[in-house]
Amino acid sequence: MSKKGIVYLIGAGPGDPKLITVKGLECMQNSDTIVYDRLAGDRLLTFARPGTELIYVGKSPDRHTLKQDEINKLLVEKASQGRTVARLKGGDPFVFGRGGEEAEALSEAGIIFEIVPGVTSAIAAPAYAGIPVTHRDFTSTMAIITGNEDPLKEDSSIQWDKLATGVGTLVFLMGMSNLPSITRRLIENGRPPQTPAALVRWGTRPEQQTLTGTLGDISEKAAWAGFSNPAVIIVGEVVSLREKLSWYEQKPLFGKRVLVTRSREQASALSEAIEDLGGEPLEFPTIGVAEPLDYKPLDQAIDELAAFKWVIFTSVNGVACFFNRLRRRNKDIRELAGARICAIGPKTREALERYGLLVAYVPGEYRAEEIVAGLQGKVNAGDRVLLPRADIARKVLAEALTGMGALVTDVAAYRTVMGGGDSAEIKKKLLNGEIHAVTFTSSSTVLNFAKMLDYPDLENLLKRVIVACIGPVTADTARELGLKVDVTAEEYTIEGLVKAMLEYFKQARRHHTAG
Ligand code: SAH
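Above: inputs. Below: predicted complex with S-adenosyl-L-homocysteine.
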């Protein structure tokens, strides 16, 4: 029997990709086709399974918007072909999302469907601005209202007289162009003009902007600020709580989009740290990991493992690739019984400990020069030392160890290749000022970044972007390419890099507020 199609109408949440529900994400990742629009958010799509068919049905400047019945038809058609379809809609699918109409169309066509509710912007955008939509001291009622309808229309379907004084918190969606008449109608119908009001634009996203005022003046303020959609309008006493409860906009990296240039496999720790601090990580892998062109040197070293006194790992990739190969040669960690193990830093140590190994030495500073200093007296003349590393690793370490009288075997455990990031997209974002900081975690990330971007005037392109480097060697490489370096970590780890960036932005903020 052929596979039966199904459509999941999924609330994608208000913009922060992590505000999709666990069920929504699961359905999305099990789908063959994803049908989405503007508010569902591009970042969420990076969590889709590779190879998933992505269909954009939102507005775009170069194409006319797909009409609702065309979207309905598309969903029916895809599901009829036996596909599992995720229909991603901003916020909640049934809150002004026309999800009801899509479900009706599916029902009429006999297509199986499920609704996965989502976090609506009507509640989440105020929440991210520090405004609880209900509060025991202020109100126990709220209404979500469309602002789409011209309130001055004679046969308005909204009972303004009841709404104006009958409900505590009023949240309008799609109301920016009607804001002057919405506020006017509410005041005419008895809501005091001094009632607190707020606008939250692009809520839960780095672009979030909040404007506060009163029912009487918010519309004029919005006009001055050039405030536009997508925004929610909040009217009610609860708005006053923002002064105490604003939290998202206070985060140190709030509003900053930070480029992460590490390999896809390694990016997550940095991305998560950026997110925790309120920033938006944008991953652009400049490095990929591939098998070495020739396994012979590594294989030979693996066959002679018993002879080594030390094995020094200088990256997490090195650890993973070494042990993969060991396994492929039908061997395991017992081969290392006679060797002591050194890791260049805490992450590499963690990776080794996951294999059940005890690490004998981690230098205080995570550089080749520091390892050598620390191994003085631990490595004796004539000791065999193995360095399973990247094909392009710096030679300093091997040379210094040889200088100490060690017999060094320096082999490639993996090869670094150019990453698969979308450079056209990144160039566009840089030109538009949509990227605020770029992080480099090794010299190769800098060099590959420059190669991949292949832009005639990189220096200028990055002039207003904060360049943050994990250490002095990386920073030097960046400077050699003509870049100005704003942040160099004092501790050459991801934590160190994040800390240094944090300090930088704190200073910048202080400066900003002071002057
Ligand atoms: N189903 C959606 C609403 C769709 S109507 C939901 O539940 O959120 C589109 C309107 O939603 C926009 O005009 C705007 O008023 C609001 N909206 C959606 N995302 C928003 C966001 N991140 N910040 C502020 N308003 C948003």
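The pocket of S-adenosyl-L-homocysteine is lined by residues 14-15, 39, 89-92, 95-97, 120-122, 125, 173-174, 200-205, 229-232 (CB under 6 Å).
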